[in-house]
Amino acid sequence: DSGVTQTPKHLITATGQRVTLRCSPRSGDLSVYWYQQSLDQGLQFLIQYYNGEERAKGNILERFSAQQFPDLHSELNLSSLELGDSALYFCASSVGFMEGQNTEAFFGQGTRLTVV
Amino acid sequence: DAKTTQPPSMDCAEGRAANLPCNHSTISGNEYVYWYRQIHSQGPQYIIHGLKNNETNEMASLIITEDRKSSTLILPHATLRDTAVYYCIVRPIYGQNFVFGPGTRLSVLP
Q1: A56-94: per-residue pLDDT in tens?
Q2: What is the spatial distance between Cα A4 and Cα B92, in angstroms, rounded to a whole number?
Q3: How many interchain CB pairs under 8 A, A with B?
Q4: How much of chain B, in percent, has pLDDT values that exceed 90?
Q5: What is the least distance, in Å, from the CA of B106 to any CA of chain A?
Q6: Which of B49, B98, B105 has the most A C-beta neighbours within 10 Å, making it the best mutation to test the interface with A?
Q7: For an engineered disulfide with A34, which of A46, A57, B52, B98 has Cβ 3.0 to 4.6 Å away?
């Protein structure tokens, strides 16, 4: 158990709908990352937050948005869903940015999104 | 960020050491080498990381060459449960996201 909790584990929804994926980081971790992994594809970085602020953006579609709340949990919102958005969505957390520190990130078990 | 090159697949006999190579010839002085693995569709699992010294933990050993242009992850006694995709990642000291390549698919054979 990595200590990172993602809910729900599975989600089935129709095209055009909107869903919210939730991530609770490990206790004490300030940084949260979101990744997408489509079937037989690699892990694609979407976005990172550190202590409530956006820190880095990857290949995140405009239909997708995220935020990190004061209690440090994060949500990834996916709207106007398309069949191609079906994928595993992983959240990871790490201690974050500190002077001279380079720390590992721990991943949750993911949310499997199926768009039908 | 420096790019990494890994063989797409490797086999290893159960009980033997698995040595997974990674080339990162463009690595710079402030970049760390990280290893993760992903078993089937589970979340990636952190294994080990290092800057220039060799590192060992309960899971594996990381050997980094003196010029830091390549590294090897060693699983000392591979088991069937070590079958996974192994990712070598180079990340700056003040790095943000982890950039995953295609990795090496390790198959541990009975």
Answers
A1: 899 899 999 999 999 999 999 999 999 999 999 999 999
A2: 23
A3: 59
A4: 82
A5: 16
A6: B98
A7: A46
